[in-house]
Amino acid sequence: MCGIVAATASRNIVPVLIEGLTRLEYRGYDSAGIAVLNPTLTRLRSVGRVAELAAQAEGQVAHHGIAHTRWATHGVPSERNAHPHVSAGLAVVHNGIIENYAELKQELLAAGYVFTSDTDTEVIAHLIQETLKSDGDLFAAVRRATARLIGAYAIAVLREWDESLVVARHGAPLLLGLGEDGNYAASDASALLQVTRRMIYLEDGDIAELRRDAIRIVGAGGTAMRIPEDRAVHESTLSADDVELGEYTHYMQKEIFEQPQALAATLELIGGAQAVSPNLFGVAAPEMLSGLRSVLILACGTSFHAGLVARYWIEQLAGVPCSVEIASEYRYRASVANPEQLVVAISQSGETADTLASIKHAKAQGMGRTLAICNVPESAIVRECALRFLTRAGPEIGVASTKAFTTQLAALFLLAVTLARQAGRLSAEQEAGHLAALRHLPVAVQKVLALEPAIKAWAGRFADKQHALFLGRGHHYPIALEGALKLKEISYIHAEGYPAGELKHGPLALVDKNMPVISIAPNDALLEKLKSNLKEVAARGGELYVFADADSVFDEEAGLHVLRLPEHYGLLSPVLHVVPLQLLSYHVALVKGTDVDKPRNLAKSVTVE
Ligand code: G6P
Questions:
Q1: What is the pLDDT of residues 310-362, one digit of tens each?
Q2: pTM of the prediction?
Q3: For residue 399, which atom of ligand 1 is closest to its CA?
Q4: In contact, 469 and 496? CB cutoff 8 Å
Q5: From ligand 1's centre to the CA of 195, what distance in Å?
Q6: Distance, CA 606 to ligand 1 centroid (Å)?
Q7: Are 312 and 299 in contact (CB under 8 A)?
């Protein structure tokens, strides 16, 4: 989604802004722009790729500037709607949504301001300009103006002839980068690694002033924040290599193949232990996880599918009832609060607006036992929860989530084992067995990745199809949902995931020779039932693509294509079975020539509702 970079430094900051925007491209965007001071304002904007903006900015030199990648919310993707938005020598970039923009716009129109875009952001620019009339200080004006905004925002503001940049955040991420030769701000640490590793994460309500040689931060209550006492300086451990493509063509491809190491890094947290410790989830975990009556998992997208798998594990291993809900539904539903329930937020980015709001909603209802399973330390969701488990997938750039998903599954399996132990439902031998199976995952996933050539050979048969159906049963049903999501996200083929037993209650009507049916068929207790479901497809002329285990038995028949995973993996099998589906969607997208890492209309971090 939208990205912000801002810089004030003794070096030429134009290349820094452009490089920062390039680093933020993965979040998803449709247009980009920069505003720099020389010392008057120059604004450049373009629809499409950052490379086009870079070409326009060639030769520009400045020491003070703000930049933005936009993912359209208010107003179509176009140059006039691209940020920065200006108001007489003042420029603003903004992530988030201003909910009361229409009302403010009326007021500003009445005061004589002329609007040149359809965005909510332009309202912020004029509002600060208007506030400056009675208060010449930019910092004070931003404070007073933002106090009138309702909604979520991260903004960066500059104005002609002013030596300072002002940034503010409320409900959307923003961090400061402390450099040797200046100070910087961005919505994501990866944009600033090029100039510094020293970062301060701003909190909601913070407003900061950046000068070349100084920064100051004022918190929500209006008090000056002391650095590092009130706002710690973090040394980012992200490496520039983590966000480089290296030998790969696409980030999604790189991230699929990084899964063995992402899992291994995440599982380092348990080392060679034979038993789990609740402390894995934080110091308060032993107390918070004890005596649990139920678990509620909240998430969106792929993270929601990880939650659906976890429900099978938690109920089977720990005997604790578990419900899983889409965060955007839960946050507005009149649900029944249960303070004894553990609320688990799953999020790769830790920024997803609905997931964050759903946790706040649960807390507001007195549900204080909260756990974040997240890939980004210091993210808003991590900070909102009492307990945390940080997956170590490394930065995930491709919009379609892959390695974040499998590491989330590893974390959730550890949670299930921990809850089972707390409930006294595991023998020492069973517990050690589950941990050993987890530790073997990186090797097992590596073997599944070796199926790539066979999957690639299948991909060509999907590229001309309009629809596809994914079937699974039991704890592989969520994997069918995830397989369908992957295919639609990056290849734009309409795909649906179904529990195989539900086939005859509707989707069977769609099956014909033009509708490929992909089935996950591990050798588990439901295999024979699944085979009967597949017969129903074959009888209607459907083409079946089956991902089976090495030891699943299938009779050869026309229209049935079977690929076997090397190992049969029991409870953790969903972690393996999702991998061929990721590869399938990747290769179908390659054949179709779609933009794999930045699929149309989608964003990596969904920081708006
Ligand atoms: C977006 C991304 C998905 C992701 C979902 C939830 O839709 O494109 O890949 O699964 O958001 O994101 P989160 O960061 O909360 O896991």
A1: 999 999 999 999 999 999 999 889 999 999 999 999 999 998 999 999 999 99
A2: 0.81
A3: 8
A4: yes
A5: 28
A6: 7
A7: no
